[in-house]
């Protein structure tokens, strides 16, 4: 595996490559990341991964400084897995040598809801860095995980609107044996909180069973999910049932007639904010 730190080095390594598959990450890699890279290898060659903790997507009160940076351990994991040909690990000065005044603003109906409501500017930061990474890597395919469901939707819409020649592939959420979605932020959970954390997924599963049982009052489902979490001292940002195709709220008729839906939730367990979702 080649490890490069500059855009010029990256382009030199990829010159002439026509089927590049790309997996962008912020590092602190775990088995879910490695699964994305294995999927990328099935759809392109060579596989490029990036590790860059993007300051544009962190708010002033968020955990940018505390976000785990484990580059040496990440390199070891990638070399052992043997799916990645080039790892692009730039520093902030390489990605943003001057103020990033040109930024990508997602449409409000997609970027300012759910995660966007509670993390203003988050999807502008995500869209901007992903577009910039796509420009550097020039992939034919890129793989994103469904755990960040809204992010996946934003990136797909951005590629469609800008006519980017990149196929966005979705990888199913990877979970531990308890059902907890794997995330770099899980390391901030205490042992007791790790035991409790799987309740988020269990609540989503129960809410999905309510839909399958014929419940069409989405507000009742959402209120139940929020109350279930709050009864166990979670601080809930949202627990919401949306249409898969655009993340807008479905009508009762759409719920009744089996419109493809997705349940999305974000909540704080102690000082750690967890997100998860479940397609219906």
Explain the overall architecture.
- This protein is an alpha/beta fold.
- It is built from 12 helices and 9 strands.
- The strands form 2 sheets. The protein has a 6-stranded parallel sheet with strand order 1-4-3-2-5-6, with helices on both faces.
- About 35% of the residues are buried.
- The model has no long low-confidence stretch (mean pLDDT about 95).
Please render the helix and strand layout as text.
Layout: E1 2-4, H1 7-14, E2 21-25, H2 31-43, E3 47-51, H3 71-81, E4 86-88, H4 92-95, H5 108-111, H6 115-118, H7 122-137, E5 141-145, H8 149-161, E6 167-171, H9 191-197, H10 199-212, H11 218-230, E7 235-243, H12 252-256, E8 261-269, E9 272-279
Parallel strand pairs: 1-4, 2-3, 2-5, 3-4, 5-6
Antiparallel strand pairs: 7-8, 8-9
Helix pairs in contact: 7-8, 10-11
Features:
three-stranded antiparallel beta sheet; 9 strands; alpha/beta; 40% helix; 280 residues; single chain; six-stranded parallel beta sheet
Structure described in brief:
With 280 residues, this protein is of the alpha/beta class. The protein has helices at residues 7-14, 31-43, 71-81, 92-95, 108-111, 115-118, 122-137, 149-161, 191-197, 199-212, 218-230, 252-256, and strands at 2-4, 21-25, 47-51, 86-88, 141-145, 167-171, 235-243, 261-269, 272-279. The strands form two sheets. A six-stranded parallel sheet has the order 1-4-3-2-5-6, sandwiched between helices. It has a three-stranded antiparallel sheet with strand order 7-8-9, with helices on one face.
